[in-house]
Design goal:
Layout (H helix, E strand, L loop, with lengths): L9 E6 L11 H4 L3 E7 L3 H11 L3 E3 L2 H7 L4 E4 L6 H10 L3 E5 L6 H14 L3 E4 L6 H11 L6 E10 L2 H5 L7 H4 L2 H4 L2 H11 L3 E9 L17 H4 L22 E8 L4 E7 L5 E9 L3 E5 L6 E5 L11 E4 L8 H17 L7 H18 L6 E2 L5 H9 L11
Helix pairs in contact: 4-5, 5-13, 5-14, 10-13
Length: 403
C-alpha cells in the first residue's frame, strides 16, 4: 500500500474482484495522481485475485471494514447486482464518491434509495452505462442529431446473446434473487441506449418472456470460486448440451418488452440467450428515414435509408463503426475516464443517475409485467426533491427531456 509520503491524490477502492473489476486497471493511466489502494471481496480467492490485478494494496472482506478504515476517496463497485444498494448507501453516507456498475439496483425501490442518498449527502454518484461510449452508439446519436432521419418516432432493438449460456446461466446471474431478471441485468444497457437515442425515458412497459432452454438442463454446479473466462468456450454448442449450470436457474432466457416513452416514442427490445451469434441490432425510425447497424463493434457499419425504394441492402449512406472488434474495452476506458473527470473536476457526464434509474425502472417493471400476465406497468416519477438535486448538477451532455 502506498506510504503517506507518496499518497495518491485520489485513493480508489475496488469492491468486488470479478471479471468487471478489470475496468479499474486503467485508473493510474487515465488520471495521473489517482491509484487503486484497496480491494474488497468476501472470499480469500477474490482478495488474492484483487492483489494480482492491482498489486500490493490493502484488502478487506467487507465494504463496511473498508469504510471504517478510512483513507478512501472513491470506490469502483463491481460486485454482484444484489449487493449494489447496501454498498452504495454506505459509501455515499461516508462521503466516498461512487462508480456503480450497471444496473444500479435490482429493484426500483433500491434505485430510488440510492438516488435519495446521493441527493441527501451530495456525494458524487456515477453509474457505469458504458455502452453510451461505444462508437456504434455515439455515431447513431450523431446521425440523429444531424437530422439525417428526422424526428425519432420508434426504436427497435434485437439482442442476440449467443454467449448467454456461459455468461449468464452458470453463476449468480441465473438466480432472480441476485439479478431480478436479465431484462434488467443484461437489457439495462440497451434500454438506456434506447432512452439516449430517443431523448426520453420509459413511462409504461409490457413484458413477455420464458425460460425455454436452460431450465430443462439438469447438470448443475461445479463453478464455485471460478470466473466466467475459466469455463467459457465456443464449443459449448448446441445450447441443450450445456453443463455445469448454476444450481438455481429461474431467470428467463427469452424476453421482450414494449415501451412507451414520455415523449411519445414507441420502442421494443428483444433478447435471446441461445442464439448462435452474439451482437445487438438497433433500428431507429424517424420522420425522414431510418438507421440500422450491421455489427456493433469495429468493422461493422451503420446504414441510413433516406429515400423511398424497395429492398436495398446497402442503404443510402453508410458509416463504418470504429473501435475494438470484440467486446467493449474502449467504451470501458472512456467510461472510467469520465467518472474520474466528474469526481475530480466536476465535469458533466453522458449519463446521469436519473437516466440510470430510468433503465432500472423499465427493466424491473418489464420483468414484473412478464411474470404477471403481461399486464402494463407504469413507471412512477422520481420524487421532487431528488429530481431537483440532480437537475442542479451540470448534465449538459444528457439528452433533452420531455415535459
Amino acid at each position: 500500500m502506498p506510504t503517506e509520503q507518496h499518497r495518491p491524490d485520489l485513493r480508489v477502492a475496488v469492491i468486488g474482484t470479478g471479471v468487471r473489476a478489470q475496468i479499474a486497471l486503467a485508473i493510474p493511466r487515465l488520471r495521473p495522481g489517482a491509484a487503486v489502494t484497496a480491494v474488497v471481496d468476501p472470499s480469500p480467492t477474490g482478495l488474492s485475485r484483487g492483489r494480482e490485478m492491482f498489486g500490493d494494496v490493502a484488502g478487506f472482506s467487507s465494504h463496511t471494514d473498508l469504510v471504517a478504515a478510512g483513507g478512501i476517496d472513491a470506490a469502483v463497485v463491481t460486485s454482484p447486482d444484489d449487493t449494489h444498494v447496501d454498498i452504495a448507501l454506505d459509501l455515499l453516507e461516508a462521503g466516498i464518491a461512487v462508480y456503480l456498475e450497471k444496473p444500479m439496483a435490482i429493484t426500483l425501490e433500491g434505485a430510488d434509495a440510492v438516488l435519495a442518498a446521493a441527493a441527501r449527502t451530495g456525494t458524487p454518484l456515477y453509474v457505469g452505462h458504458n455502452l453510451r461510449h461505444a462508437d456504434v452508439v455515439r455515431q447513431m446519436r450523431a446521425i440523429i442529431e444531424r437530422g439525417e432521419i428526422g424526428e425519432v418516432k420508434t426504436v427497435w432493438v434485437r439482442h442476440f446473446v449467443g454467449n448467454g449460456g456461459d455468461y449468464y446461466f452458470k453463476d449468480w446471474h441465473a438466480d432472480r434473487r441476485r439479478t431480478g431478471s436479465l431484462l434488467l441485468q443484461k437489457a439495462s444497457h440497451d434500454i438506456d441506449v434506447i432512452h439516449y437515442l430517443a431523448s426520453g425515458h420509459t413511462r409504461r412497459v409490457v413484458g413477455m418472456g420464458d425460460l425455454m432452454v436452460y431450465g430443462g438442463i439438469t447438470d448443475r454446479g461445479g463453478h464455485q470460486d471460478e470466473l466466467m473466462p475459466e469455463w467459457f468456450s465456443l464449443d459449448h454448442w448446441p445450447p441443450t448440451t450445456q453443463t455445469g449450470l448454476n444450481p438455481v436457474v429461474d431467470v428467463e432466457d427469452v424476453s421482450m418488452v414494449l415501451m412507451t416513452l414520455d415523449n411519445g416514442v414507441l420502442a421494443s427490445y428483444e433478447q435471446c440467450h441461445f442464439t448462435p451469434d452474439y451482437w445487438r441490432n438497433y433500428t431507429v425510425i424517424g420522420t425522414h428515414g431510418r438507421l440500422e447497424n450491421i455489427g456493433d463493434t469495429g468493422g461493422g457499419e451503420i446504414r441510413v435509408w433516406s429515400r423511398r425504394h424497395g429492398w436495398q441492402e446497402a442503404g443510402d449512406a453508410a458509416y463504418p463503426i470504429a473501435g475494438v472488434e470484440d467486446g467493449h474495452e474502449d467504451a470501458d476506458i472512456a467510461t472510467m475516464a469520465e467518472f474520474l473527470d466528474h469526481v475530480v473536476d466536476g465535469a458533466p457526464t453522458v449519463v446521469s443517475p436519473l437516466a440510470a434509474r430510468a433503465a432500472v425502472a423499465a427493466g424491473a417493471l418489464a420483468a414484473h409485467s412478464l411474470r404477471n400476465g403481461s399486464t402494463p406497468q407504469d413507471v412512477p416519477p422520481v420524487p421532487d426533491d431528488v429530481q431537483a438535486h440532480f437537475a442542479r448538477l451540470d448534465t449538459s451532455k444528457e439528452p433533452s427531456r420531455a415535459d
